[in-house]
Amino acid sequence: MNDLFRDPALLGLAAFAALAAGALAAWGEARRARLSALFASPRLAERLVPGAAGAARRRNTLLRAAALVLILVALAGPQWGVELREAKVKTSQAVIAVDISLSMLAEDVKPNRLERAKRTLSLVLDGLSGTRVGVVAFAGDAFTQCPMTTDLAAARSLIRRLEAGKLPRQGSSLARAVEHGAAMLARYPGRKAVVLVTDGEERGGDSAAAARAAAEAGVSLVVLGVGTPEGAPIPLKDPEGRTSGYKKDRAGQTVVSRLGESGLGQLAAATRGAYWRLSNDEAEVQGVLRALRETDASEAAVGGGTRYKNRYRFPLAAAVLLLFVELLLPEVPRPRRAAGKAAVAAVLLLGLLAAPGAAEPTEWSLWKGGRAWKQGDPGTALKHYQKREEDSARARFNAGAARYALGEHEGAETQFGALTEDLEGARTDGVRANDAYYNLGNALFRREKLPEAAEAYKRCLLHNPDDADCRHNLVLALRPQNQKQKDKEKEKDKPKDDKKDQPPPPDQRPQSGGMSREDAERILQAVSEREKENRKRQPIKGSEKEGAGQEDDW
Predict the structure, then answer these.
(1) Where are the domains of the chain?
(2) Distances (CA, A) of 311 to 12, 104, 357
(3) What average pLDDT does range 411-421 have in this prediction?
(4) What average pLDDT is seen over the chain?
(5) What does pTM read for this prediction?
(6) What phi and psi values does residue 515 have, to the nearest 5 degrees?
């Protein structure tokens, strides 16, 4: 009974109301008969009040009693069928950009700069409940490690696994970190923040210009400096983790990495942000949290689940219909023509009341959009999906697919990019996170944003390691540019994008097989290492001799 009604206790009240109505009607009829006997003889009373009027009166009393019972049944909340709902809250947003260049291995803070930064960031994440967070790792270039998400445990896990010296391009470009973090926050309104964790050694790019551009976009820099102004050499480790020497520059001198404190302070000031140097007592954590609380909030999905659909409309519509019929059928019988008009009006009212409960508005829009899609009209399908984008993840997913089919790749990128945040680690409304990442990668590929497309395909494989199409497109996105040009001329290699434009029901889709998430992560690590080796083999353009034009790689 608890599964059929939300509040089954009200059914007892409905039964009591039915008995009370019957008893009250019987008492009323008896009292009416006694008063009629006092007023006139039985023969005269029968002439004054026809018997048909009494029958009509009892019928109307029954209709009112039945309407009362149906209203109480509606209040009890009859329910059947399951619907998916997601919870949304107002949340602020921040990107944590972590320097993982070789200089972060310096041991002027213990155990080293990177490990100290990880420990502090773990404390910061503990205080960011209700905040949407993304993680960026940077050295000579910047890469998304965790897209914007409210799953702080996942962000903490990815930060914990960061290792210095693992990115393909070494060095230290604060400009790329700021630009990448600001780009991740671009879709959100209001004031946002990038938490920049670095030792401040700038090896490439114009960080001051990047900071000014970020400030114009409403992004402030909360900068955490790691290290000491005196600095320390950069240790080189053997496979067993023992120090085998120290990093040397091209002249053979030991490199001493120092904290660039003045430059970091200027970057923070340029964006109306704040700067702290990490200390032993980690007192700066509360200051960082206060700075992040000043950012503006926007709506985000924080979870979801299933619940029974409340079908109160059906008994409530029946109750209103009975009351309307009772109004149209008075105690004094009318001619048949009038009774026929009343019946027609009752049927029309029943149709109007039943229409809202016959089909959910969201499902109706999705059905109409799906029909237009099957007819080869993505434009009309998009119009139907847009009506329910705020209510349904499936509508947002299909709207992104329709934009992609129309050639609106920028709009599809925005649509799928926002959807991946809501679906991270979950399946909502029949849409899976790996499908959203796959289509995001396709949109980025079409816009020739190949590094971003590769990152999207990697996230797709982390959610579904057996996705062969995603693996194929990842290889295309990572392939060297000259090879892609040859493929383009031959028109052979194009990303496969006919698989997930619009998903069939979840039970018809291929499920993950024998590969675990750990296996997928090892595969992606191997891909990264292979890409790193390929880049090492590429000659430096314009160099006259070995080492010419080489940037500092720490």
Answers:
(1) 9-78+311-358, 86-302, 361-537
(2) 19, 60, 8
(3) 83
(4) 76
(5) 0.48
(6) -105, 130
- The three-point CA angle 22-23-28 to 5° equals 100
Residue 471 CB neighbour total at 10 angstroms: 17
Residues 6+ apart with CB under 8 A from 423: 393, 431, 432, 433, 436
Amino acid symbol at 491:
E
17 to each of 12, 56, 73, how far by Cα in Å? 9, 21, 11
Decide if 273 contacts 291 (C-beta within 8 A).
yes
Fold of 361-537: 1.25.40
For residue 86, the SS3 value is strand
**Tens of pLDDT along 116-167?**
999 999 999 999 887 889 999 998 889 998 988 888 888 999 999 998 888 8
Superfamily grouping for domain 86-302 = von Willebrand factor, type A domain (3.40.50.410)
Write a three-state SS string for 423-466. Answer: HCCCEECCEEHHHHHHHHHHHHHHCCCHHHHHHHHHHHHHHCCC
Distance CA 110, CA 460 (A): 37
Closest CA to 93 of 365, 293, 326: 293
